[in-house]
């Protein structure tokens, strides 16, 4: 019978994590699966455990239990492994943009059925310098909110913790453009911008259509640039994000690419799947079919 390693972030999301994991394990064990559980304690634990699991030859599947940050670490471990085991995502974190985009079941019985059916697709990954991302890499306005929020606030308040931190950041810092240069086959220019996003999927920061044409199967990354805008223009752009129409705004640049180099004269931090991921300059490129994911048919 199939052997499954669960890699679990115990601090991810609310207190129901353990209950959900126990329920899933009971269903799997009763059906004859062999299970192993690993609980992360610090940064990069999930990366190292994924590499170890893939290289051991003792496991057939990984279930990653956590939010976008945990999924990023598992994806990084997969990218660094020769034997790329398929991964199922059991969402339990504060922000689950990628799991929601991939339509991962949130109910345990439905998740169990997905594991049983074992329908696998090969999705693209993104790479920025020497780091990987499964969902998004970004810089500029509010992109540091994810790693400014304390772990305790994430667990207690959920997504509201991010909204409170975003509001606090706007009040304290205001809106200040950054001067960047972009170099790709599709777009080469210097701009004063408020935000840039290099995305693998369409769902980012709770907005399901921020990169409306993004597809994890197309072998391309989607680039969204919001140029310097005043408050009314910015409000109009973000209002239209709900419908995916913001890409038609004159202050928005949107295109697909396999590779893009972004430079800055200032120290600009890059957010990678909700965590701090280094600084510009950075080269962003797609890794086609870089990861196997178990999904609903």
From TrEMBL:
Q: Carries keyword ATP-binding? A: yes
What's the EC number here?
A: 2.7.1.107
Q: Could you tell me which Gene3D superfamilies the record lists for this protein?
A: 2.60.200.40, Probable inorganic polyphosphate/atp-NAD kinase, domain 1
This one is known as Diacylglycerol kinase
GO biological process assignments:
phospholipid biosynthetic process
Q: Which cofactor does it need?
A: Mg(2+)
InterPro entries xrefs: ATP-NAD_kinase_N, Diacylglycerol/lipid_kinase, Diacylglycerol_kinase_cat_dom, Lipid_Phosphate_FormReg, NAD/diacylglycerol_kinase_sf, YegS/DAGK_C
Q: Which family does it belong to?
A: Belongs to the diacylglycerol/lipid kinase family.
Instruction: Tell me which GO cellular component terms the UniProt record holds.
Output: plasma membrane
GO terms, molecular function: ATP binding; ATP-dependent diacylglycerol kinase activity; metal ion binding
**PROSITE patterns referenced in this protein's UniProt entry, alphabetically:** DAGK
- Keyword entries, A-Z: ATP-binding, Kinase, Lipid biosynthesis, Lipid metabolism, Magnesium, Metal-binding, Nucleotide-binding, Phospholipid biosynthesis, Phospholipid metabolism, Transferase
Sorted alphabetically, which SUPFAM superfamilies does this protein's record hold? NAD kinase/diacylglycerol kinase-like
DAGKc domain mapped to chain residues: 1-132
């Amino acid at each position: 019978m199939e052997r499954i390693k669960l890699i679990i972030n115990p601090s991810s999301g609310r207190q129901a994590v353990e209950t959900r994991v126990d329920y899933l394990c009971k269903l799997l064990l009763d059906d004859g699966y062999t299970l192993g559980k690993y609980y992360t304690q610090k940064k990069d634990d999930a990366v190292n455990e994924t590499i170890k699991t893939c290289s051991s030859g003792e496991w057939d599947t990984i279930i990653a239990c956590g939010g976008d940050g945990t999924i990023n670490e598992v994806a990084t471990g997969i990218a660094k492994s020769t034997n790329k085991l398929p991964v199922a995502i059991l969402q339990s974190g504060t922000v689950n943009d990628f799991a929601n985009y991939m339509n991962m079941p949130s109910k345990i019985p439905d998740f169990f059925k997905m594991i049983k059916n074992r329908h696998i697709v090969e999705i693209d990954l993104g790479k920025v310098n020497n780091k990987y991302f499964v969902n998004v890499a970004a810089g500029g306005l509010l992109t540091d909110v994810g790693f400014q929020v304390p772990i305790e606030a994430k667990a207690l308040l959920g997504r509201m913790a991010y909204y409170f931190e975003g509001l606090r950041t706007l009040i304290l810092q205001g809106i200040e453009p950054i001067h960047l240069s972009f170099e790709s086959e599709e777009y080469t220019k210097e701009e004063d911008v408020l935000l840039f996003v290099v995305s693998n999927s369409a769902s980012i920061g709770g907005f399901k259509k921020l990169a409306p044409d993004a597809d994890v199967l197309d072998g391309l990354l989607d680039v969204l640039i919001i140029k310097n805008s005043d408050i009314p223009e910015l409000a109009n752009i973000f209002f239209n994000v709900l419908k995916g129409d913001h890409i038609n705004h004159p202050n928005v640049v949107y295109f697909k690419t396999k590779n893009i180099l972004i430079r800055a004269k200032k120290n600009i931090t890059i957010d990678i799947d909700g965590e701090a991921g280094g600084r510009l300059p950075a080269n962003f490129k797609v890794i086609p079919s870089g990861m196997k994911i178990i999904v609903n048919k």
